[in-house]
Amino acid sequence: MSQHYSPLCRRAVEARVDKIVNSKLVKALLILACLALLGFGLALVIAYKNALGWVLVGCAAIPFEILIWGKYELKEIPEGKGENVNDLLSNECLQHLGHKPTPQDVAKWFYKTRSGGFLAMRYAITPRMMEAVTSRMSSDIEPIFAKAIEVREKTNSEFISGGVLTIAIIECCPEYEQILKSMKLEISDLYDGIVWFNYLYDLVKGLNLKRRTGGFARDLMFGYTPLLQRYAINISRQHESTRGGNVSVSLHREHLEQMIDIFSKGGRQNVAIIGPEGSGRGTLVDEFASEILNADNKISSRIKFRQIFKLDASALISGAGERGELEALMTRILNEAFLAKNVILWLDNAQLFFEEATGSVDISNVLLPVLEGGRLRIIMTMDQQRYLEIAARKAALANALNKIMVEQANEEETFKVMQDRVPILEYQNNATYTFWSLREAYRLSERYVHDLVMPGRALNLLEAAGHYAVNGFVTDASVQEAVEKTFGVKMQASQDNVEREKLLNMESLIHKRLIGQDMAVTAVSDALRRSAAGVRNEGRPIGTFLFLGPTGVGKTELAKAISEVYFGGESQIVRIDLNEYVSPDDVSRLIADAATDELSLTAQVMKHPFSVVLLDEIEKAHPLVLTTLLQLLDEGILRDVKNREVSFRDTIVVATSNAGANKIRDYIDQGLDMSQIKEQLTNDLISGGEFKPEFLNRFDEICVFQPLDKDALFTIVDLIIAGVNKTLEPRKISVTLEPEAKALLVERGYDPKLGARPMRRIVSKTVENIVARSVLAGATDSGDTIAINEDMIKAAL
Amino acid sequence: MLAVSFLQWWYSRGWGIYFRGFRERMRNLADFFSIGLLLRTLFQPFRQISADETGETGGIQGALIAFFDRLLSRFIGCVVRIGIIVAGIIAMTVQLVGGCLLALLWPCVPLVPFIGIAICMMGVTF
Question: Which of B30, B32, B125 lies nearest to residue A216, judging by beta carbons?
């Protein structure tokens, strides 16, 4: 079909007239003309007895008619009867299209239309980018119009709007996939954008409609509810003031109909909405409240205009002094709700009413007869686990409930809910949410928000991201910043050069405090670089390493060095000495609830999700403990005793072991290189029964630490002395070692079995004591340098 | 062409839009006065007030007290409701008459300039 645009078609002409008539100035002039003609006309007729005034009065109808026409017809010119572009273009597009439009002309004004502006703001489609992909040939516009008709159909749009034309232009560009890829977009994302716009546009249109909620005399037939006013919140009252249609029910339509069905018919008048936190249980009740309050909805008069009161457990507990009083108060409240005839009670977190604990109270004795009687309408919301616990304790109660199971939303549903919530968030934060912010909120919430399910977890993050808007826009970077600030996690390598340099020179930075062990240092540095560049598997920890080697060779020191260099300080290290986990019972201590044991592995990682996890002396742990750690190493997830997921996906897991340490020196003496030693040692550990193969296989890398030789110890002495000087820095005193003194320290501090550990003790015993004595004797003052020679060391020893 | 478009709209869609708006206003008014609801619940007790809902205070005397109590409440409810319904009907009638007059005047509006000219030519003055 030819898609020839005719600028003289009726709709195009009317659209151009609309542009004039509905401009503020012309509207004001028309009103003025109407009043002036009417006034002068009547004045002529009445005051001057001049019949010509009737002509003026009659002519006053002309500007009036134009105003009416402009308001009710020209503003929203309906689509034409055909399927031609002239019949389908939106008013806004018709106003902007000139007599011979070219694709580039459209690129210049598309963002001035509502839907085009929407795409421009949320998908960063700029006029410059559009102009770059469009031609100046007017003949090229027809294929774009043809494509626009297709886009309109696919997106179920009423008109070919500015946004639809934008997509058509992009799709007509031969290399559009490449262009979109550079923007991290796909064409389907833009289609979704139009659907999103249409939805919001309809929502805004609905806000202009008056909502009918039964009128001022609606509640005359229902009783007074003074107790409920005090101990509960009237949810329906909040929805009464909302203009427009019902709140969105995209996610819960099926459950909503189920609720209406249960309450519309006879039988037990209760609903237990059971689902995990964040699945939208509360929203479902809100939607139900809104639905039954809408006079236009065709629902049973048994529930129409009923008021939902959310009982406040804490207000109830504080309102009643003792237990007996609470039950009496609850009975009075239930009676009041029943007698009022229009009350639906909502027990949010219903477990609070069925168990004895802080902030909750067991009043099942009062509630059970009411639930079984089924005369008072009650809604309960709770999570699955709590429901199972209550059901196990009170089978009669569980049997008396009409259950509605709410599952977590899938990706598509979550996006819909996020899009639904965006206008409110934008209003609250005075910022525009881009498409990428939604996508990032979904992706990152899946990874970092563990106490909620979708869509609650994504909404949670999206809301937090609003505080990190830049120039009025909430972008994917805002979401990442929210994650960084909320969870203390480093999302990406910082864009600044300092961070980049640090990553590129990780090895040399680590070697500032660790001597040798190049294999392990390189392995760890590579893992950190992969993580920072975003090329690692995000479903696992940043890296998992098993450090094997004798004591004192730098295994723990390397973990500390990583923590300092990359994770922001030695405090970001979670250290678990597994020699304390030698029995099967210790597993529960390892994964204890954070609320009861703050030192458990799960509790510490919950507090420091971005850290080095150091599992010291792993060979001493009970096999059951090692089995528990398998999922951690594999998927980066460990479940605590309460079955909550704790993410280790932003940690480096370092396990250290002395197992097989004695053999390393033998293998070195035999002349094996490090890779051969590693292979040999691994086989030894498996055949010796120290570790199971499936456990060792879970590590990204097994790093064998070499015993330190005397040369390495010379450098270590320098490092230790540098540490001493750092300690003395505030007193402006420094220490130097003469070569003979250093040689003596190495001689005395070297022990092949204990590595560098004795060296630190020797330095403490000699150098630090010499400095201390000198300072106390007044021989050294600020700004002095203490040169230590061999004799001084000998004397100190 | 514009004049034709305008006249076409005025006597077809425009008139329809007016009627739809009129109907909405009537429905809003009926909703505001809760007329349908009040009619359906005309004899319900006023705000469910009654001294003894079930007559459990004892025997025939208690039941009788409860019965008359509810009867009184229903009577009060009925009087209040009828009052509101009457007020609502008056308001709706005013709106209905006004709306119908405007609906009748609607087709005449485009003719008003010509009517003005005609009156002028007739030389009518006050």
Answer: B32
Question: B61: distance to nearest CA of chain A, Å?
Answer: 22
pLDDT in tens, A395-442: 888 888 899 999 989 999 899 999 988 999 999 999 999 999 999 999
Collapse the DSSP code of A405 into the 3-class scheme (helix H, G, I; strand E, B; otherwise coil) and give the result: strand
**B115: chain A residues, CB-CB within 8 Å:** 58
> Is residue A468 within a helix (H) or strand (E), and if so which, with residue range?
none
Residue A65 located in a structural domain: no
Coil vs helix vs strand at A185:
coil
Cβ separation B113–A45 shorter than 8 A? no
The rounded distance, in Å, linking the Cα atoms of A709 and A706 is 9
A542 and A636 belong to one structural domain: yes
Residue type, B126: F
In the 3-class helix/strand/coil scheme, how is A618-683 assigned residue by residue? HHHCCHHHHHHHHHHHHHCEEECCCCCEEECCCCEEEEEECCCHHHHHHHHHCCCCHHHHHHHHHH
**What are B65-109's pLDDT values in tens digits?**
888 888 888 899 899 999 999 999 999 999 999 999 999 999 999
Q: Say if residue A469 is in the same domain as residue A573.
A: no
pTM here is 0.79
Residue contact A13–B1, C-beta within 8 A: yes
Q: Is A669 buried (19+), middle (13-18) or exposed (0-12) by CB count in 10 A? A: exposed
Instruction: Indicate left, alpha or beta for A367 from its phi (over 0: left) and psi (-120 to 50: alpha).
Output: alpha
pLDDT digits (tens, 9 = 90+) for A755-777: 777 888 888 888 888 888 888 88
Q: Per-residue DSSP letters for A324-340?
A: HHHHHHHHHHHHHHHHH
Using the predicted structure, report yes or no on whether residue A367 has a pLDDT greater than 80: yes
Examine the domain organization and report whether A647 and A720 are in the same domain. Answer: no
Domain region containing A771: 710-796
Backbone torsions φ then ψ of A629, nearest 5 degrees: -80, -10
Question: Do residue B125 and residue A50 have CB atoms under 8 angstroms apart?
Answer: yes
Together in a domain, A556 and A514: yes
Is A212 domain-assigned?
Answer: no
How far apart are alpha carbons A757 and A106 in whole angstroms? 74
Q: Each residue of A31-41: b (16+ CB within 10 Å) or e?
A: eebbeebbebb
Q: Which residues of A touch B121 (CB under 8 A)?
A: 51
CB B73 within 8 A of CB B45: yes
Helix (H, G, I), strand (E, B), or coil: what is residue A516?
coil
Whether residue A93 sits in one domain with residue A140 = yes
Same domain, A322 and A448: no
* End residue of a domain, out of A469, A487, A505: A487
Q: Do A221 and B44 touch (CB under 8 A)?
A: yes
Disruptive mutation site among A81, A220, A294 for chain B (greatest number of B CBs within 10 Å): A220
Closest CA to A38 of B101, B102, B116: B116
ipTM over 0.90: no
Instruction: Number of A to B CB contacts under 8 A, please give it.
Output: 127
Q: Parallel, antiparallel, or unpaired: how do β-strands A232-234 and A307-311 relate?
A: antiparallel
Give SS3 for A595: coil
| Per-residue pLDDT tens over the stretch B9-42 | 999 999 999 999 999 999 999 999 999 989 988 9
SS3 A360: strand
pLDDT number for residue A741? 87
Q: What total of structural domains would you count in chain A? A: 5
Q: Parse chain B into domains and list their residue ranges.
A: 2-122
Minimum CA–CA partner of A304 in chain B: B37
Chain A residue whose CA is closest to B6: A69
SS3 A734: strand
A284/chain B closest Cα distance in angstroms: 26
The fraction of chain A above a pLDDT of 90, given in percent, is: 42
